[in-house]
Amino acid sequence: MRKAGHGGLVYSTEGGRMCPACRRPAAACTCAVRGAARPPGDGIVRLSRESKGRGGKTVTVVRGLDEDASALAELGRRLRTLCGTGGTVKDGVIELQGDHCERLARHFAETGRQVRQTGGG
């Protein structure tokens, strides 16, 4: 027997993927499951250097930016160009390959943003 509240319609040929909570097409979903946005930043740019869980590779992580997704993607592209490295933007966080904390700290200070280096940066 199925438990109440579990399972249900996942895909419909009429609407495509369906939200399990509100049972609307995923593109038209307005419930809290889809509407969960990332928490707003406080305006302080936090730079950190991480290597755990990355096969020993060092990654510079930029957090605390108060930007929307498209502006954050554009900023990530500019920072990758500035550092001459690869990287990505995930869940409101910019990750750059390599240790670029000092270069990014100078860049953000020149653009008038408050910068803090955290966690091994």
Provide a descriptive summary of the structure in words:
- The protein is of the alpha+beta class.
- The protein has three helices and seven strands.
- The model has no long low-confidence stretch (mean pLDDT 80).
Give the tags.
Translation Initiation Factor Eif1; 2 domains; 5-stranded mixed sheet; 3 helices; elongated
Biggest beta sheet summary = 5 strands, mixed
| CATH architecture title of the largest domain | 2-Layer Sandwich
CATH topology of the largest domain, anyone?
Translation Initiation Factor Eif1
The oligomeric state is single chain
Strand content: 15-25%
Quick one: how many beta strands?
Answer: 7
- Helical stretch tally: 3
Low-pLDDT sequence parts:
none
Helix-strand pattern, N to C? EEHEEHEEHE
Question: For the terminal residues, how far apart are their CA atoms?
Answer: 54 Å
Strand order of the largest sheet: 5-6-4-3-7
For the record, the CATH class of the largest domain is Alpha Beta
Q: What percent of residues adopt helix (DSSP H or I)?
A: 10-25%
Radius of gyration of CA atoms, rounded to a whole number: 19 Å
CATH superfamily of the largest domain: SUI1-like domain
Mean pLDDT: 80
Total individual domains: 2
Broad structural category: alpha+beta
Inertia-based shape: elongated
Describe the structure concisely:
The chain is of the alpha+beta class and 121 residues long. The chain contains three helices and seven strands.
